Amino acid sequence: MSEVLDIAKKDGRWIECKKCSEIILTKKLEENLWVCNHCDHHFRLSAKDRIRITCDEGSFVELGMDEQDDEGAPEEAILCGKAAIEGQECYLGIMDFSHKGGSMGIAVGQKIVKIMKTARESRLPLILFSTSGGVRIQEGIWGLFQMLRTVHARDQIEHSPVITVFTDPTTGGVSASFSALGDILLSEPRARIGFAGPRVIQSTVQCTLPPGFQDAETLLANGFIDRIVHRRDLRSTLSSLLKWF
């Protein structure tokens, strides 16, 4: 039986939950918005899957990059565009952890700056789905410079609300820059949100960290985020918030 399951997992028909080790039929998991129906673990989503379950069908239009836009350009760790959620128009920036750990380099920074500028000029709300391991440090000082660029672009937005949705994980220079500067901060359940990893912090401060130190639930209890929203309720929650703007 184990051999059959191994084959089924390799060809994508079944998936093992990383939290409870339950073997789940991929089709059923997709129907449940990639949430384990045994332990409620929220699987990581690609940017395209996030668009599919969040936006009105066919409403997403990817944002071009003017003269930098190139049909042959490689995919990046963020997908930006205009969409509608239950009829409410907005701009979306959706990070994808599967692409180099969602790291922010020059190209990602450029896209974030562009969509923030576009949202500001159109006075439409901006929703940012954050998931990242931090700055793309292999780009050196230019990678670190994206923190300053995105924060500056965020500061220029005055009449367009910015909503951040933290997903697992959001860490490093992304959590320390634009993602934490939303007017409303939401999170999926049990998402890890922080700067350095727990092992780095423990070795630095020489003390044992409490359980759930960087979990969304702990950050909610300490006032860092505004609300934790289950994935099945996220679309309706965002739609309700957009109606206020």
What does it look like?
With 245 residues, the protein is an alpha/beta fold. The protein folds into two domains: 1-43, no CATH class; 45-243, Alpha-Beta Complex (2-enoyl-CoA Hydratase, Chain A, domain 1). Helices cover 35% and strands 19% of the residues. The protein is built from nine helices and nine strands. The strands form two sheets. The protein has a seven-stranded mixed sheet, with helices on both faces. Strands 1-2 form a two-stranded antiparallel sheet. Helix 5 (141-155) links the parallel strand 6 (126-132) and strand 7 (162-170). Helix 4 (106-122) runs parallel beside helix 5 (141-155). It starts with a helix and ends with a helix.
Task: Using brief descriptors, characterize the structure shown.
7-stranded mixed sheet; 245 residues; 9 helices; alpha/beta; two-stranded antiparallel ribbon; 2 domains; 2-enoyl-CoA Hydratase, Chain A, domain 1
Please provide a brief summary of the model.
Helix content is 35%, strand content 19%. With 245 residues, the chain is an alpha/beta fold.
